[in-house]
Amino acid sequence: MSVVNAMEFASLALRQAGNDEAGEAAPRCGGGNSYDGRMGLRISAVFVILLGSTFGALFPVVAKKNPRLKIPDWTMMFAKYFGSGVIICTAFIHLLTPANEALTDPCLTGPITEYPWAQGIALMSVFTVFFVELLAMRFATFSTSHLDYDIDNPSANREKGLRGNSPAAITTDPEALPCENNEAIKENYAAQMIGLFILEFGIIFHSIFIGLTLAVSGEEFTTLYVVLVFHQTFEGLGLGARLTTVPFPNVWAPYAMALGYGITTPIAIGIGLGARSTLDPTSQTALLLNGIFDAISAGILLYTGLVELMAHEFLFGPNLKSAKISYVMTAFVLMTLGAGLMALLGKWA
C-alpha cells in the first residue's frame, strides 16, 4: 500500500509541477488598456501635437519657399542637421527598442519567441529599401522639366537661356556637359525623390502607433504627452528640412507631405480615444502589430539616416565636400545634438 500511495503522490506532484511550469511559461496576454479618464486633456493632445508637428514640418518649407521672410541661414542649417540627428536616433531608441520589447513580451508564444525578430525584420527592411532604391535608380523616371534646365529636352533649355539671357541657364545647358554628367544629375535627383518618399513612409508608420498608445495610456499620460509634443515637433523639423532639399515638380507637394505628417498622430489619437473601450495595447495581436511595424520603420529610418543623411550628405554631397571645416564641424555637432536630445527623451517615451 505504501508503495502504491507513494507512486500516486509522485504522479500528482509531477502533474502539479507540469501545470506550474506551463503557467509560468506563457502568461496571459491582454487585460485591457490603462485609460483612466482625463478626456479633456487627451483631446487637447490632439490639437497641441497637431500644432507642434505641423509647425515643425512646415517651418523649413515655408522659410525656404518665401525668401521675403528673411529667415537667417543658420536657422535653416540648424533645422537640417539637428533634424537629421533626430531621425537617426528615432530609428535606434524610439523604434528598434520598443519593437524588441513588444516581440519579446513573455506572453507571446510560438516561433516569434525563438528568434530576435525585431532585429531580423529591421534587417530585412534595410535590404528591401536598398533593393527598391536600386531598381528605381535604374528604371524609374522623374521629369526634370521643372528644374533650371530640362535634361530630357535640350532645345527648351536653349530657348530659356536665349529668352532670359540667363548665364546660369546657358552654363547649365546639358548639351554643354558630358553625357555622363547628364546621367549623374538625373540619378541624383531620382535618389533624392525616392529617399524622401521612403523617409516619409517610415515616419508616418511610427506616428500612427505612438498616437494610439498615447490615447489609452494611464498614469504615465502626462509625461508621455509632454515628451511626444517635443518628439513630434523635432521629428517634423527633420522631415521638413529634408523636404526643402528636393526641387519638387509640383510647388504644393512639400506642403502636402508636411501636412500629411502633421495630421497623422492627431488622427491616431482620435481613433484611439474612439476605440478606448476595446483597444488593448497588451493583447497578442497588438504586440505583434506594434513590434513588426516598429521594426519595419526602424529599418527604413536606419537606412535613410545612415546612408542618405550621414554618408551622402557628409561624405559625398557637394555642399559639405567643398565647405570649410568649421561649417562641417558645426553641422556634425548639430546632428549629434539632435540625436542626443532625442535619446534623452527616450528615457520617458
TrEMBL record:
The chain crosses the membrane at residues 43-62, 74-97, 117-136, 194-216, 252-275, 287-305, 325-345. The keyword Transmembrane applies. It comes from the Eukaryota. It is found in: Membrane. Belongs to the ZIP transporter (TC 2.A.5) family. It comes from Choiromyces venosus 120613-1. InterPro entries: ZIP, Zn/Fe_permease_fun/pln. This is ZIP zinc/iron transport family. Keywords: Ion transport, Membrane, Transmembrane, Transmembrane helix, Transport.
